[in-house]
UniProtKB/TrEMBL annotation:
InterPro entries with a match to the protein in the record: FAD/NAD-bd_sf, Flavin_mOase, Flavin_mOase-like, FMO-like
Matching Pfam families: FMO-like
Transmembrane segments: none
MF annotations from Gene Ontology: flavin adenine dinucleotide binding; monooxygenase activity; N,N-dimethylaniline monooxygenase activity; NADP binding
Annotated source species: Eucalyptus grandis (Flooded gum)
Protein's recorded name: Flavin-containing monooxygenase
UniProt EC number: 1.-.-.-
Lineage summary: Eukaryota, Viridiplantae, Streptophyta, Embryophyta, Tracheophyta
Enzyme class: oxidoreductase
Cofactors named for this entry: FAD
Keywords, alphabetical: FAD, Flavoprotein, Monooxygenase, NADP, Oxidoreductase
Domain of life of the source: Eukaryota
Keyword Oxidoreductase among UniProt keywords: yes
Length: 465
């Protein structure tokens, strides 16, 4: 080692969660020479992609601090994005024989991909399954950047019989903690007059799995984003009526086609109030008597195990303060969050986050000063406030250039033009062909697809050699 190169430090690191972000974090941390323990509450890897059909016992509105069910996947769910832009940059998500070979496969296909990733890189030995993190707190909080360590209390759940769980608490100390728990589990609920006294069935899409329980019912679906739209279409096949309540009645051409096709699917404005007899009143004065209300109203960030003495808080879905959506300045780099940003091509972004975290902990790279990070955060908050962006959308990136600038922190390659092109064309196709976009695309898409396959096949050959 040259005398001017910093000594590489090896840290004992806890990664919370074995979904995509936690798995790539584990790989990069180990690659950088750190000792890694991954704590995962489920029996297998996958996080959101580990489908859980049994939702009995889960609070239908997600009001408990610790949720029993992590995944919000429903049985028939397929990708919104094509497989070419999914997957990590050095481990392409390619078609495999005798598996789901569609461009937009079902959720199990990504779980199998993640299992391949874990097996290829030998990550399973790092993971403790059936282990729920109960508490993460600072051992000592001294000067900035000095000797900060973390105590992690976890509960190992061992099933001895059908209803007999033996829970053993384990307490450990780590040099650093990486929070990789995802953000599609904790229901974000609206506030509607009469909601607390409504006598009929109401639940969040977090526990929606199949449409059959709503057969022959009148169902009101709240939320007109992709999940609300797609679940409404599925429900329309079995329900007597489906009323999709939206903040705006401006719809895309694709949704107009869906409403024309499904005569029992109706677009409604926002709900004004709920009555005990089952009446749902809308703000335009119309109403229906419903059997079920299904809230497709999105998800919130929640870290019920994390105690930072108020340094990191979740305020209307703004997790902060976080420098570059990753590091709280006063606790960096010993505490980091991976997978907070939304509206991104997620897997490459997680990968660049993981590399940055790992290299900061080893001492290969350094963060700006506390003052510089804090100023950057304040400037960012001011810019989105000035643009009229609600606080709850703080982490909605929706910006290729930002993702590339982020990757520059570790020299991570910029997104390929074909990847950007496929992403953009998919969004347009969803808007134009909501019900069929996964199985039909035009000539321009076909050219992008060929370029993507050529690039990914080459990457795969380089990787396996």
């Amino acid at each position: 080692m040259a005398c001017n190169e910093p000594a590489v430090q090896s840290k004992h690191v806890c990664v919370i969660g074995a979904g995509p972000s936690g798995l790539v974090a584990a790989r990069e941390l180990r690659k950088e020479g750190h000792s890694v323990v991954v704590l995962e509450q489920n029996h297998d890897i996958g996080g959101q992609w580990l489908y859980e059909p049994n939702v009995e016992g889960e609070d239908p509105l997600g009001r408990e601090p610790f949720l029993r069910v992590h995944s919000s996947m429903y049985k028939s769910q397929r990708f919104v994005w094509p497989r070419e832009i999914m997957g990590f940059t050095d481990f392409p998500f390619l078609v495999k024989k005798d598996r789901d070979m569609r461009r937009f496969p079902g959720h199990r296909e990504l779980l199998l991909y993640l299992q391949d990733f874990v097996d290829w890189f030998g990550l399973r030995e790092l993971i403790r399954f059936n282990t729920r993190v109960e508490h993460v707190g600072m051992v000592n909080y001294g000067e900035y950047g000095k000797d900060l360590r973390w105590v992690v209390k976890s509960k190992e759940i061992t099933t001895k019989g059908d209803d007999d769980n033996d829970e053993k608490m384990v307490e450990e100390v780590f040099d650093a903690v990486v929070v990789a728990t995802g953000h599609y589990s904790r229901p974000r609920m609206p506030s509607i007059k009469g909601m607390g006294t409504w006598k009929k069935k109401q639940f969040h899409s977090h526990i929606y799995r199949v449409p059959e329980p709503c057969r022959d019912e009148v169902v009101v679906v709240v939320g007109n984003f992709v999940s609300g739209q797609e679940i409404s279409m599925e429900l329309a096949e079995v329900a007597r009526e489906v009323h999709l309540s939206a903040k705006s009645l401006d719809i895309t051409g694709g949704q107009s086609k869906v409403l024309d096709k499904h005569r029992n699917l109706h677009l409604r404005p926002r709900i004004d109030s709920l009555e005990e007899d089952g009446t749902v009143s809308f703000i335009d004065g119309s109403s229906v008597i419903a059997d079920t209300i299904l809230y497709c109203t999105g998800y919130s960030y929640a870290f019920p195990f994390l105690d930072t003495k108020g340094i990191v808080v979740v305020d209307d879905d703004r997790v902060g303060p976080l420098y570059e959506h990753t590091f709280p300045p006063s606790l960096a780099p010993s505490l980091s969050f991976i997978g907070i940003p939304r509206k991104i091509i997620s897997f490459p972004f997680f990968e660049s986050q993981a590399k940055w975290i790992a290299q900061l902990l080893s001492g290969k790279r350094t963060l700006p000063t506390w003052n510089e990070m804090t100023q950057s955060i304040n400037d960012f908050y001011s810019s989105i406030d000035a643009a009229g962006v609600p606080k709850r959308h703080t982490h909605d990136i929706d910006n290729f250039e930002y993702c590339e600038r982020y990757g520059d922190n570790v020299g991570f390659p910029h997104l390929e033009e074909w990847r950007k092109g496929i992403c953009t064309s998919t969004i347009k196709n969803i808007e134009a062909n909501l019900e069929t976009f996964r199985d039909s695309w035009d000539e321009a898409d076909e050219k992008l697809l060929q370029e993507a396959l050529q690039s990914l096949t080459s990457l795969n050959s380089d990787h396996k050699s």
